[in-house]
Amino acid sequence: METENKKRAIVIGGGITGLAACYRLQREAAQRNIPIDVTLLEATGRVGGVIQTEHRDGFLIEHGPDAFISTKPAAKTLCEELGIADQFIGTNPKVRRSFVVRKGVLHPVPEGFYMMAPGSLKPFLKTPLFSWRGKLRMAMDLFIPRRERDIDEAVAHFVRRRLGTEAFTRMAQPMIGGIYTSDAENLSLKATFPRFLEMEKTHGSIIKALRAQKKQAAETSRDTSGPRYSLFLSFKSGMQQLIDTLTGILSDSIRLNTRVEHIQQDTDDTGWRVALSTGEILNSELLCIALPAVQTSALVRSISNPLATKLDAIPYASSATVNLAFRRGDIAHPLDGMGFVVPATENLSLIGCSFSSVKFENRAPEEHILLRVFVGEPTAKNTEADLIQLCQTDLTPLLGIEHPPLFATVSKHTQAMAQYQVGHQGVVDDIERLTSEWQGLALAGNGYHGIGIPDCIRSGETAAISLLDALCEAVP
Question: What is the rounded CA–CA span in Å between residue 367 and residue 79?
Fold first, then answer.
């Protein structure tokens, strides 16, 4: 592509999605020999969004996500390109299991159990997490016919249909709640766990599918039937490593404390005018909005009310993370796992807890423990002091805690978690169709095709490449 004038691109939003979009715009444009000036606008005083690492008194505290999964390649591939793959750290191989709370006691998830169904018979039969009636009902999955109609189904309905109520309330609901901070009664299976749909379609049974995977794993010496803790990666110095590396590369393009008030298309439909809260107007040929869907809706309503309405159809939930530091001797539980999840039927304030300094090395000083507690939307609305007290109240009997924490920190994530409700994919299809009607515009974020770090990176990179593709097509 031959260009006489440098093109301009604006990315709105400095979370990991926006950083990935900005980085990919610059790198891809350089490879295509497209002169481009990219500006990233972030409303707050820092980039990185929910990803933030704090070092305090020898503890490494993650205020947001503490790892990403490597089976989705976008994050791992980006880190390799950035030259920081040598800083990867995996989970502790000695304690690769987790627990579920049942009647106030932590019980290990049966070996080979995957989210909602057993892949190994003996551990499943021995576990006290389910009654014998519940176990028999789960076994009925072997005989229940597959659903032939291709319809979107709530996760809760799917689990109850195939495996029964106990499988949902005692295992699937807390596992899913720990991932999506969501009500599984409305959560779209097709948008969140399509793998289980494929299991039913291919094998006619979730249990048969897991047993087939276990057999294949035995033949290839790989474990694929249960939770694959070895696939979670972080960095030696914490997740902030990724943000700091991108920030260092993109520093000349980032503008902090820069809030966008309004966007509109140029009168000749060949570019965009971005109005800032300071009154300044920026112009660009390309515009990527890398914000939560609800914030994106507010910006695009002036150009397309139908698009804004569709974006409003993606709800968001709030959550909070509470980090608590203890002396090792103050906790009676052996902490011989990664952490635990809590079924809603237990009526506790927290939905899960990660044993951070057990899960990853060098997260706490010797003879100390760092715990990360997660609370859902209703509890997250409490004050920080109330949240700390609620977490202490719940944790004390579960873990046998004898003294208050050395310190505690609270991180609130307001309206940060997209909720993929039944029909989500249809909504996203409409959003993408309506967005395509606007030249030089792309949307990215956790509201569309996945909420994890790899999903967000892929979303930002896909948006960047689509904008450059459209730019090339527009030039004769």
Answer: 32
Helical axes 73-82 vs 240-250, angle rounded to 10°: 50
| pTM metric for this prediction | 0.93
pLDDT digits (tens, 9 = 90+) for 354-376: 999 999 999 999 999 999 999 98
- pLDDT tens for residues 6-23? 899 999 999 999 999 999
Please say whether the beta carbons of 153 and 165 come within 8 A: no
Q: What's the full length of the chain, in residues?
A: 476
Residue 92 has pLDDT above 50, yes or no: yes
Pairing state of beta strands 68-69 and 232-235?
A: antiparallel
d(CA 125, CA 131): 10
CA 120 to chain centre: 28
- Please provide residue 314's backbone torsions phi and psi, each rounded to the nearest 5 degrees: -100, 105
Distance CA 114, CA 89 (A): 24
Neighbours of 399 (CB within 10 A): 21
50, 413 Cβ separation under 8 angstroms: yes
The dihedral formed by the CA atoms of 306, 312, 313 and 319, expressed in degrees to the nearest 10: 170
Under DSSP, the state recorded for 380 is H
> Residue 182 above 90 pLDDT?
no
62: Cβ–Cβ under 8 A, 6 or more apart, which residues? 52, 53, 238, 239, 321, 323, 356, 372
**Which pair of structure tokens corresponds to residue 445?**
């974020």
Query: Sign (positive/negative) of CA torsion 391, 393, 399, 400?
Result: positive
Query: Tokens 């035995």 correspond to what residue?
Result: 218
Backbone angles phi, psi at 101, to 5 degrees: -80, 130
Buried b (16+ CB within 10 A) or exposed e, 323-346: bbbbeeebbebebebbbbbbbeeb
Q: How far from chain centre, in Å, is Cα 157?
A: 23
Q: Strands 286-289 and 272-276: what pairing?
A: unpaired
CA angle 316, 273, 11 (to 5 degrees): 50
Rounded to the nearest 10 degrees, how much is the dihedral formed by the CA atoms of 210, 213, 219, 223? Answer: -80
Say which residue the tokens 């994919």 belong to. Answer: 425
DSSP label of 465: H
**Of 371, 411, 87, which Cα lies nearest the Cα of 239?**
87
CB 413 within 8 A of CB 419: no
Dist. CA 476–CA 473, nearest whole Å = 7
